[in-house]
Design goal:
Number of domains: 1
Number of helices: 15
Largest sheet: 8 strands, mixed
Oligomer: single chain
Structural class: alpha/beta
Helix content: 25-40%
């Protein structure tokens, strides 16, 4: 049976005045989700009694219902997510461990969680200036279709997809090193902006929209305050879960990192990568039944984050990491500063291209057609992460979107169109079946012939 084929579950609305995203759960599970939202503090610390109630509530969810229970709490459009519920709203280590131990009882399946950077990964912003920027940021051509192809929620429907208000929703989790010092307001703003940014002009079978959650820096509910405090003192909250001792003070000559901006000095990339990696480990610990993919860019610390994620997946008992992707921003004539040293230091043995022996590692790509082509080329080692149908869908979406892109510089526009045309031709050739009556890439070829 294909990984895209599982039992059909109907979408039902949660009871009550629900402005949140609604999901495919029964009334009993919906009531427990509502109780979790009620118990979790919005702005203040959690007392031991409430922590115990959160633990008991989570432990009352049957293992085979955990994926569905967590889904709506993760992607409901607010700043609360499962990492927040388990590690921020609960301070006592023993309670956290009891919850994590119960979450491990969820039956493993072939679901895929996508974690992603934002700037220069979802849209050009800090370094990549080829596309429209603020206030009219434009998602990279094909990025939504690419994320839609990667993610898989087997409990949702027969295809792992789900539709809200006539639009296919694409759940991802943004991975950031920013702190969360203002009671989640930064996360709420980030989530709302990504939803608005990707809101399609019309409904239909091709309409996609991000449904993100956001992992920012750690801010425990009562004892440690904000991540800014934690990080400036190098308190690696969460390192205890992998057996590493925390470092409680700055080393001589070290300067604290300003995590309120994404503009990271190159000399501090290692610290930012560590925060992102620890956030990933926390996320993986509350979703042990899933496999994971990370997507970032070469502009800051993401290459090192990707390396750490891949290496964690190689450890016995570690997260089930499929692969990682890094958007290569090198050799761009319009970039404001060079890609990061972390990207240049990425071991050759981990870099994955079209000719590599395996797809497991750090796939370096120039656009999302190229990313899909590389993943499809290595489908045997990546468990059909990208299928032929999905390669066609990503390619067509990217061609439509680059064709419609509002790029004033004529030379730049034509250069980009050539880049996408060349990679689309590769995609079309890859999926053309030998001797088949129907060419699945026929629409790609038609669009290339008429528009490019």
């Amino acid at each position: 049976m294909s990984r895209r084929v599982v039992g059909l579950l109907a979408l039902v609305l949660l009871s009550g005045a629900c402005s949140r995203w609604c999901g495919a759960v029964g009334p009993g599970l919906a009531a427990k989700q509502a109780e979790m939202r009620r118990l979790a503090p919005a702005d203040s610390g959690t007392d031991p009694v409430t922590e115990g109630r959160i633990r008991d509530l989570l432990l009352s969810v049957e293992p085979d219902q955990l994926s569905a229970f967590k889904f709506d709490l993760e992607y409901d459009g607010d700043d609360k997510d499962m990492v927040e519920y388990v590690f921020h709203d609960v301070d006592r280590t023993g309670v956290q461990r009891a919850i994590v131990d119960h979450l491990k009882k969820a039956p493993p399946h072939d679901g895929v969680k996508v974690l992603s950077d934002v700037d220069d990964t979802i849209y050009g912003n800090l370094i990549d200036r080829r596309y429209p920027r603020s206030p009219n940021k434009t998602p990279y051509p094909g990025v939504l279709a690419f994320y839609d192809a990667l993610k898989y929620e087997p409990h949702r429907s027969d295809t792992g997809r789900f539709v809200h208000d006539g639009i296919a929703q694409v759940p991802i989790t943004t991975l950031s090193a920013r702190p969360n010092p203002i009671v989640g307001r930064l996360e709420k703003r980030s989530i709302a902006s990504l939803i608005d940014l990707t809101r399609p002009a019309s409904r239909g079978p091709l309409a996609l929209q991000l449904r993100p959650s956001a992992l920012s820096g750690h801010a425990t509910s009562s004892t440690l305050g904000t991540l800014e405090t934690v990080f400036r003192n190098r308190l690696a909250v969460g390192l205890s879960f992998v057996g590493a001792p925390p470092q409680t003070s700055l080393n001589p000559g070290e300067q604290p990192v300003d995590l309120l901006t994404d503009k990271v000095p190159h000399g501090q990339e290692d610290q930012i990568a560590e925060v992102k990696f620890m956030n990933f480990l926390s996320f993986a610990s509350v979703y042990p039944e899933y496999r994971f993919v990370f997507v970032g860019d070469s502009g800051q610390a993401d290459a090192l984050t990707a390396q750490r994620i891949v290496e964690s997946g190689a450890v016995k008992g570690g997260p089930r990491v499929i692969t990682t992707f890094i958007h290569d921003l090198k050799d761009r004539s319009n970039q404001t500063r060079p890609p990061s040293p972390a990207f240049d230091r990425l071991p050759a043995t981990l870099r994955v291209g079209r000719a590599s022996a395996s797809g497991r590692g750090v796939i370096v790509f120039r656009n999302y057609v190229d990313a899909a082509v590389i993943a499809y080329t290595h489908r045997a080692t990546l468990g059909d992460l990208i299928t032929a149908h999905e390669l066609v869908a990503v390619t067509l979406a990217a061609l439509r979107e680059i064709d419609a892109a509002d790029i004033d510089d004529v030379t730049l526009r034509e250069s980009l169109r050539r880049e996408y045309r060349d990679d689309a031709n590769v995609a079309a050739d890859l999926v053309k079946p030998s001797g088949a009556a129907v060419d699945p890439a026929a629409e790609i070829r038609r669009m290339l012939a008429t528009r490019f």
